[in-house]
């Protein structure tokens, strides 16, 4: 018999038609009726009741704290809206990076209360993983796929196969109620002690031709961390609208500038081109093949521990929960 704790947070899976459109409206008691207990003990805690659009980093902390306050379970399932599920999965991958039990996020594109819903399958699959998994970590289970939490990205707005594992293999799949491992996750000892601290003073900038350098001055005034989605392999303009000088200005002020690519697949090699080497020389911290959702969460978690640039770079560039350097 397995002891499984379900943490309900709202989302489409628990939504019902209301005056202004779909919104969370299903109680945790109603949600619980869709979980096949078999011989297992399944308990439920209503942690949040939100459309995931409204879920914030402070909610990641609340979810993590709830899990840690209930240590006597074998596995944990979090029902969650899809729009920010990948951010929450990444956030928990760092907040609970040394937690040695399976934590599974799932949800649906169509509410449980609708006839043609994907929610019933996703709940059943999440239970299969919770019962069968002999590995630990944070995972997203959706449309039969088991994805490492820090590698999940929502890539479709309506289809059932809404999530993809970016730059990392899908770990397993659930077929006909059975878990089929495709890539065994190897969790070495956590490189850093997990700490339930976040600094949300972080901005995200997508580079585009014509982007003004004024944004860097704004972030400097906020004394914030910055993530820049660069072109290609990490390049930013250094002629005309000189964004590289903005990176240097921030780095000289002791502020972190993490550089990723706006291209979803295959990561970046910041040293491949001169334009990328200029960014690195200016103090840009390369994020390799991490996805943006993971970088946002990892930078918030890192800044919650230190504002020393050398330490920030070390933590950002150290693989945690399979988030980095698979390619």
Automatic annotation (TrEMBL):
EC category name: hydrolase
Any GO molecular function: asparaginase activity
Keywords: Hydrolase
Superkingdom as given in the UniProt entry: Bacteria
Biological process per Gene Ontology, one example term: amino acid metabolic process
Domain Asparaginase/glutaminase C-terminal: 201-315
Reactions that this protein is recorded to catalyse: L-asparagine + H2O = L-aspartate + NH4(+)
Domain L-asparaginase N-terminal: 3-185
SMART domains (alphabetical): Asparaginase
Record-linked InterPro entries: AsnA_fam, Asp/glu_Ase-like_sf, Asparaginase/glutaminase-like, Asparaginase/glutaminase_AS1, Asparaginase/glutaminase_AS2, Asparaginase_C, L-asparaginase_C, L-asparaginase_I
Active-site positions on this chain: 12, 82
Family: Belongs to the asparaginase 1 family.
NCBIfam families listed in its UniProt record: asnASE_I
Listed name of the protein: asparaginase
């Amino acid at each position: 018999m397995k002891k499984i704790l379900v943490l309900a947070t709202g989302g489409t899976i628990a939504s019902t038609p209301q005056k202004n459109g779909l919104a969370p409206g299903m109680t945790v008691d109603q949600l619980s009726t869709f979980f096949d207990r078999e011989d297992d003990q399944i308990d439920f805690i209503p942690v949040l009741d939100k459309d995931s659009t409204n879920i914030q980093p402070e909610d990641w902390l609340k979810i993590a704290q709830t899990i840690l306050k209930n240590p006597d379970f074998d596995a944990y399932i979090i029902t969650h809206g899809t729009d920010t599920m990948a951010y929450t999965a990444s956030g928990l991958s760092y907040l609970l990076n040394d937690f040695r039990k399976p934590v599974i996020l799932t949800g649906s594109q169509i509410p449980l209360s609708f006839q043609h819903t994907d929610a019933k399958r996703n709940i059943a699959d999440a239970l299969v993983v919770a019962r069968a998994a002999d590995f630990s970590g944070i995972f997203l289970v959706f449309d039969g796929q088991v994805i490492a939490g820090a590698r999940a990205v929502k890539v479709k707005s309506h289809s059932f196969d809404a999530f993809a594992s970016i730059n990392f293999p899908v770990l397993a799949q659930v077929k006909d109620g059975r878990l089929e491992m495709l890539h065994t996750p190897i969790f070495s000892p956590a490189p850093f002690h997990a700490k339930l601290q976040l600094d949300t003073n972080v901005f995200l900038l997508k580079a585009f031709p014509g982007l003004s350098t004024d944004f860097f001055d704004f972030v400097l005034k906020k004394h914030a961390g910055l993530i820049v989605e660069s072109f290609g392999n990490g390049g930013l303009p250094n002629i005309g609208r000189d964004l590289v000088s903005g990176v240097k200005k921030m780095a000289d002020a002791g502020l972190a500038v993490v550089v990723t690519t706006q291209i979803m697949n295959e990561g970046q090699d910041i040293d491949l081109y001169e334009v990328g080497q200029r960014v690195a020389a200016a103090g840009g911290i390369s994020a390799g093949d991490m996805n943006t959702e993971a970088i946002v969460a990892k930078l918030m978690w890192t800044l919650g521990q230190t504002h020393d640039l050398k330490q920030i770079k070390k933590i950002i560039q150290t693989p945690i929960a399979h988030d980095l350097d698979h390619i």
